[in-house]
Amino acid sequence: MAEPVGVLAARGYELLAAAALRTGMDEASIEQWADHAADAAAVVGIAEQSGHALLASGHVLMSRHQPVEAAQRYQEAQELLGAESSAGVRARELARAALRTADRGPEGALADLTIREREVADLAGQGLKTKDIAEQLRVSPRTVDVHLTRIYSKLGIASRVALVRLMTLAG
Question: pTM here?
Fold first, then answer.
């Protein structure tokens, strides 16, 4: 893999750590990406990149089943990234999901969903499009959209991207 541009390297490595967590890679792989993120952030000395390194560190803690500690890292990252930036909003969502996991176990954040909503959430979390989910569940795309709206409301999130992140954290 080619080395990413210095000022964006920590962000790229953090995304790789997040993907490794989502796909169930071993803790060592996630930690390796987080280490790269921390090193890259240290080189450029930019607060935003340090925030991404903290997010990567949070991913390592989630892989170790330490959601309270991960939530703290995600909250620290949010402070560096800015609460209104897209990365800051993502950090806040990750912190909330980690705390829900800590409060109610790995499936805690999803416990309030109906069986059908959980099916839709699982498929959306795998990256399927609305049309594909509808075909697989034999419902209309509009029905899938209604389920997604209810899922977002129950989980306190605002997008499919946030749902994928939550599904990643919930395992």
Answer: 0.62
pLDDT digits (tens, 9 = 90+) for 151-170: 877 776 667 887 887 787 77
Alpha-carbon distance 116 to 7, whole Å?
Answer: 43
Q: How far apart are CA 31 and CA 59, in angstroms?
A: 8
CB 82 within 8 A of CB 43: no
Q: How far apart are CA 166 and CA 171, in angstroms?
A: 8
CB-based contact 79:41 (threshold 8 Å): no
Element holding 145 (H helix, E strand): helix 141-155
How far apart CA 118 and CA 40 sit, in angstroms, is 38
Q: Any idea what DSSP says for residue 2? A: P
Give me the helices (H) in 6-46, please. 9-22, 27-44
From residue 92, how far is each of 7, 99, 142, 158 by CA, in Å? 23, 11, 29, 12
pLDDT tens string 121-138: 999 988 899 999 999 999
Give the 3-state secondary structure of residue 112. Answer: coil
